[in-house]
Amino acid sequence: MNIAIIIPHYNDAARLRRCLDALAAQDLSGSEIVVVDNGSTQPLDDIAASFPQVRFVTEHGRGAAMARNRGVTETRAEHILFLDADCIPSPGWLNAARSAIGKADIVGGAIDVFDETPPPRSGAQAFETVFAFNYRRYVQKKHFSVTANLLTRRRVFDEIGPFRPGLSEDEEWCQRARGRGFSIALAEDMRVAHPTRSDWPALRRKWKRLTSEMFALNMTNHPEARGRLLWAGRALLMPVSILVHLPRILFSPRLNGWGERLRGAVTLARLRLLRMAWMTRQALTGRP
């Protein structure tokens, strides 16, 4: 096989089926699909029976990083393509990935967001519509790609090493790659769609996890007192970021009406203040 598509999964069977339906409609010649289940309580027997071309394995080590690493060990394909179970690859996604081979050592694809519920949008959906997955900035300015849509060579992965759980593993992995001189590029036509978080509890859980992972990465890059001081400074900037980013919500052409804009603005303020509290505690205690 030339390309292995690695999909980590945990208790999201309906979205996994939707993802595999979209993949099954594409030209899968020269490719294999490996779904790595992270110890779900939801049974996957029906899905496995519906997609005999997909290999299902179980990884008991917790977290998507461990699942992705296991997926890589399960295949000897020359190219590795990471995809998340809740994403929907566009009809030309796999062919676009084939065309992107050779563009760079690491290729990040485009990520569009969509709502799974009818309008109007909740505050969480409005917030994510504006701010989630700024993939161009990630790849072109910060030089990393999220693993929801990332292509690399096995040789590159083997040299860099596995994803490290407990921190922002995609950014940290790409940092190691850049440190070794590997290149990264953007492939706009390698597109997937990702659902927005539909409500405040889901958005809060996402950012609780991300804030812990970002703190761990910060402390890896800036150990001990310096890292905690830098993190405290970032925490103090959270209220300022509300004012800086508020116009993006209020004047976004992607939102419909002032109701969605106001709900998005309230969510922006609520989330940034909560993140300030989390980050301040992390800086004081040194624990994620």
TrEMBL record:
Q: Name one Pfam family in it.
A: Glycos_transf_2
Q: Which InterPro entries match?
A: Glyco_trans_2-like, Nucleotide-diphossugar_trans
- The residue range of the signal peptide is none
> Where do the Glycosyltransferase 2-like domain residues begin and end?
5-160
Q: Name one GO molecular function term.
A: glycosyltransferase activity
UniProt KW keywords: Glycosyltransferase, Transferase
Which PANTHER family does the annotation name?
GALACTOFURANOSYLTRANSFERASE GLFT2, RHAMNOSYLTRANSFERASE WBBL
Which protein family is it in?
Belongs to the glycosyltransferase 2 family.
Q: Under which name does UniProt file this protein? A: GT2 family glycosyltransferase
Q: What is the lineage of its organism?
A: Bacteria, Pseudomonadati, Pseudomonadota, Alphaproteobacteria, Rhodobacterales
